[in-house]
Design goal:
Layout (H helix, E strand, L loop, with lengths): L33 E2 L4 H7 L3 E6 L14 H9 L5 E2 L4 E2 L4 E6 L7 H17 L3 E6 L4 H13 L5 E6 L19 H5 L5 E9 L8 H9 L3 E3 L1 H7 L1 H13 L4 E7 L21 H12 L6 E5 L10 H20 L16
Parallel strand pairs: 1-5, 2-5, 2-6, 6-11, 7-8, 7-10, 8-9, 10-11
Antiparallel strand pairs: 3-4
Helix pairs in contact: 2-10, 3-4, 7-8, 8-9, 9-10
Length: 346
Amino acid sequence: MNPAKSYAHLFSPLGGDDADNYRAPGQLTFLRSEHVPLETAALKKHGARFAFVGVPFDEGNVGKPGSEDGPREFRIASQEYLSYWFEFGVDLNGLAVDCGDVPMPKVNPDTARAKIYKAVKTVLEAGVTPIIVGGDRSISIQAARALSDHIGSKKAMGCLHFGAHLDLADSWAGEKLLSTCAFARITELPNVSSKHVAHIGARNSMNPKDYIDLAKERNIRFYPMFEVFERGIDAVTEEAAEKVWKSTDAQYLSFNFNVMDASASPGVTAAEPGGLESREMIRVADIIGKRKSVSVIDVTELAPVYDVSGTTSRLAVCTILRLMAAMARARNELVDQKLRRSDLVS
């Protein structure tokens, strides 16, 4: 146990003047974390492992609008969680900071895309893992390009994507930077090889033939939902993660929560029947967390206007927090279990 660190937050409120209402956070940040400017020097000085960056961009969406409100609702849902995870014996307090939202000039999508790229690059240059929350799926194009440029062409980059749609359109209505083109653009990056790429969760008929043709042409391994049903989420996730993490220098992990069944995740821009259940997504986070680290995490297509009681935002937050906790456990960063409340109060 670090004697210089206060562990009062591990316990329920102590009463008296210190019994702040955990649901009245004051400044709204991810998991009540400290706000740090989106600057490389500031992030290095703080020493956090993760930096939350909101990306309220909805100009690359081809379906229902609403994902620009995703970052706000993700932060709100994170207020419902504490930082101690008993299943893993770890404490997430202090591991993350919140860098606010990337300013999005709606009148100029190209400028907005450049800002997304710069924001992710800034966090990476500080040696910190960005957790970017959008925003439509097209934000992954700029974020993945930032990671690719950050590590350089001589190093290998892997990518694991969860979603109901392959997003492998070479173009959509003549455009190449839309959400439907995200995986197509990522798999074109110079240091991304098909042997280090995997997709989990594709299903139903919003995956047109050109998606399948491009997947075959580029030798992209995707695990459709019927394969997940047959083999189980554990086996599929283990195999996919091995492809992405083995012999790579950096990994891009992307969650579009329409990978979930529509009943478990209604608050997305394209809810789809036949997807994962919540318990399966928890297993996904636990399995990937055993890899100890990841270079960039993104969450896209959250659309709170269609959600029910914040179900989808809460699931997204739970997934990311469990992933962080599982990685901390894998690194053996455990809380001293001998610690008791009596050690903190007279």
